[in-house]
Write a structure and sequence with these properties.
Blueprint lengths: L9 H16 L2 H13 L7 H16 L3 E13 L3 E7 L9 E2 L2 E3 L11 E8 L2 H5 L10 E4 L5 H5 L3 H21 L4 E5 L25 E4 L1 H13 L3 E6 L2 E15 L4 E11 L9 H21 L5 E8 L7 H10 L6 E6 L7 E7 L4 H4 L1 H6 L7 E4 L15 E6 L4 H4 L12 H20 L7
Parallel strand pairs: 5-6, 6-7, 7-8, 11-12, 11-13, 13-16, 14-15
Antiparallel strand pairs: 1-10, 2-3, 2-9, 4-8, 5-9, 10-12, 14-16
C-alpha cells in the first residue's frame, strides 16, 4: 500500500489515527443506539416516536456544543393497522379448517374492506413468467410475485445487488398487478430472513390505475402458496387496514461543529433517523445515526477543530421517499459549491472493509492515505461507486462517501421485526464510527478540498 500522506501532513495523519483509536474505545455510539432503539423505539415518519427522536438527538448535539438547527420538512404519515391472512380452501385440506399465512403490509398500501376480501391466489415467479399467463388469468385474483432473494449472492458479500434484483417487485408490484385486474398483490419478502419473518418496505402506485392492497409474505409461505397453487385452486381471505393520513411536519436534525478557518465549507456525516415500525430500527438506520453522532462527540472530546465545518445530519423520511433529503437539497442548493463531501451510513453496522466513494475517479487515489490510517480496523479499501446513499444522492455534484460494510447478514434483519439492538456487534459498530470520524476529519482538514 502507498504510505504517502498525500493531501495531509504527518501531523494530520496522526490525528486520524488518534480519532480511530478513540472511536474503538468509546461507548458513546452504543449507548446512544440503546436509547434510540430501546427507549424511543420504532421511528416511522409522522409518528410520535419520530418526533421524540428528533428532540432527543437535537438535545444530544446541543450538549456537545454543536450549533443545532431543526429543518422543517413535510413527511408521509402512514399507519399500519391490522394485517392477517388465511387460506380458506386449497387442495387436500381438512374440512372446516383454515391455514394461516404470515405477511405484513407494504408501506403506503391501501386497505382492504374492513372485513377483508376473499379471492383465488395466482403465483408468478417473475415478471417474465407473469407475461406467459393466459389473458385474464389475474383478473379478480390475488397475485403473488414470487421472485426469490439471491441468498448465494448475499453470502458472497454482495447483499446490495441481491436486494436490488428483488426489490423492484416490491416497488412495482401493485402497479403491475392492478394493470392486470388483480384485487390485491403479495410479494415474496425481499430479504434473506428465515423463521417466517415478513419484510416490509415502501411500495408505489401508478397514476391512472386502481390502488390495490399490497403486502409481503414470508419466504416460507410464498413457497407454500407456490406448491399448493400448482396442485389446484387456492383461495385466501386477506385483511389489511392501514391508513394514509395527511402529511405532517417533521424535521431534519442539523448540527454544525464549526470549522476553524472555512466555516462556510461543509462536510456532512449522516444517517436517517426514521425507521420502519415492525421493530426498533437498530441496523436501519439507528447505527448510521449514532456513528455520525459519535463523530461530533469525538471531535469535541479530543478538542479537534478542523478547518472546515463538520455537519451532522439526521435525515427524516428516507424509508418512504426521502422528503428530508429533498428538502435539504432545495434549501441548500446554492451552497453545494461549498459542500466538500457528504458521508452517509445506511447499511447497518457490519464490519467495514473500507470506503465507498461516488464522484471524481481521482477520489480513489486521493483517499489512499485515509484508508491506510484505517488499516488497524481492517477498512483498507477505497471503492468507486455510482452512489453512496439514498439521502446524499439528492446532493447533486457533491462528492459522496459511505463506509463499505459487510452486507452478508444485513438483509437477514432489514425491514423485519428482528431489526433490534441485539443484532449490533459493539466492536463492529465502533469500527464504523472510526471510519466515519477519520473520513470526516480528513475531508474537513485537507489543505485542498476533495476532487470534484
Amino acid at each position: 500500500m502507498n504510505t504517502s500522506t498525500g493531501a495531509w501532513t504527518a501531523e494530520q495523519v496522526a490525528t486520524m489515527e488518534k480519532l480511530r483509536d478513540a472511536a474503538m474505545q468509546d461507548p458513546y455510539a452504543l449507548n446512544q443506539l440503546r436509547h434510540l432503539t430501546d427507549n424511543i423505539g420504532p421511528r416511522l415518519s409522522g409518528s410520535p416516536q419520530a418526533q421524540k427522536a428528533v428532540e432527543y438527538v437535537a438535545d444530544q448535539m446541543r450538549a456537545l456544543g454543536a450549533e443545532v438547527h431543526l429543518e422543517k420538512t413535510l413527511v408521509p404519515h402512514w399507519v399500519r393497522g391490522a394485517e392477517t391472512a388465511e387460506l380458506v380452501s386449497w387442495p387436500g385440506m381438512a374440512e372446516g379448517t383454515v391455514q394461516k399465512i404470515v405477511l405484513t403490509a407494504l408501506g403506503g398500501s391501501v386497505a382492504t374492506p374492513a372485513d377483508g376480501l376473499t379471492a383465488e391466489v395466482v403465483v408468478a415467479d417473475s415478471f417474465e413468467d407473469l407475461k406467459k399467463l393466459p389473458a385474464g388469468a389475474v383478473r379478480g385474483k390475488i397475485l403473488l410475485l414470487n421472485e426469490k432473494f439471491d441468498k448465494r449472492l448475499a453470502a458472497q458479500g454482495d447483499g446490495l445487488s441481491a436486494y436490488g434484483q428483488a426489490v423492484v417487485y416490491r416497488g412495482a408490484g401493485p402497479a403491475v398487478a392492478a394493470s392486470l385486474g388483480a384485487v390485491a398483490v403479495l410479494v415474496r419478502s425481499v430479504g434473506n430472513a428465515d423463521y417466517r419473518l415478513p419484510h416490509t418496505g415502501a411500495t408505489m402506485y401508478a397514476e391512472g390505475l386502481p390502488k390495490i392492497p399490497a403486502a409481503a409474505v414470508t419466504a416460507e409461505d410464498a413457497d407454500l402458496l407456490k406448491d399448493l397453487t400448482s396442485q389446484g385452486a387456492v383461495r385466501m381471505h386477506l385483511t389489511l387496514t392501514p391508513q394514509t393520513l395527511p402529511r405532517v411536519q417533521s424535521y431534519n436534525v442539523i448540527a454544525d461543529w464549526k470549522g476553524s478557518e472555512h466555516p462556510e465549507q461543509v462536510v456532512i456525516v449522516s444517517g436517517h433517523l426514521d425507521s420502519w415500525d415492525l421493530a426498533t430500527g437498530a441496523i436501519d438506520d439507528g447505527a448510521g445515526i449514532v456513528v455520525s453522532m459519535q463523530t461530533i462527540h469525538l471531535l469535541q472530546k479530543l478538542g479537534i477543530h478542523p478547518r472546515r465545518t463538520v455537519r451532522f445530519v439526521a435525515w427524516m423520511d428516507e424509508e418512504q421517499g426521502g422528503s428530508g433529503a429533498e428538502t435539504y437539497a432545495e434549501e441548500h442548493a446554492s451552497e453545494f459549491k461549498n459542500h466538500v463531501g457528504a458521508i452517509e451510513s445506511d447499511l447497518g453496522a457490519g464490519h467495514p472493509i473500507g470506503i465507498i466513494a461516488a464522484g471524481n475517479p481521482q477520489l480513489e487515489e486521493w483517499l489512499g492515505p485515509v484508508a491506510h490510517a484505517l488499516v488497524p480496523v481492517g477498512a483498507t479499501t477505497v471503492k468507486m461507486s455510482e452512489d453512496a446513499g439514498e439521502d446524499v444522492s439528492f446532493l447533486k455534484g457533491v462528492p459522496q462517501f459511505a463506509p463499505n460494510q459487510d452486507s452478508r447478514f444485513y438483509f437477514n434483519y432489514h425491514h423485519t421485526s428482528a431489526d433490534t439492538f441485539d443484532k449490533v456487534v459493539p466492536t463492529e459498530l465502533n469500527e464504523n464510527a472510526a471510519v466515519m470520524a477519520v473520513l470526516a476529519y480528513a475531508l474537513a482538514d485537507s489543505v485542498t478540498p476533495a476532487p470534484r
